[in-house]
Amino acid sequence: MTMLDAPTLAENLATDAKILARGVTVHYGAKQALNGIDLDIAGNRVTALIGPSGCGKSTFLRCLNRMNDTVAGARVGGMVTLDGEPLYGPGALDPVLLRMRVGMVFQKPNPFPKSIYDNVAFGPRIHGLFARKADLDEAVERALERAGLWHEVKDRLHDRATGLSGGQQQRLCIARAIAVDPEVILMDEPCSALDPIATARVEELIDELRDNFAIVIVTHSMQQAARVSQQTAFFHLGNLVEVGPTERIFTAPEHQLTQGYITGRFG
Ligand SMILES: Nc1ncnc2c1ncn2[C@@H]1O[C@H](COP(=O)(O)OP(=O)(O)OP(=O)(O)O)[C@@H](O)[C@H]1O
Ligand SMILES: [Mg+2]
Question: What CATH code is assigned to 43-62+94-262?
Answer without folding.
Answer: 3.40.50.300
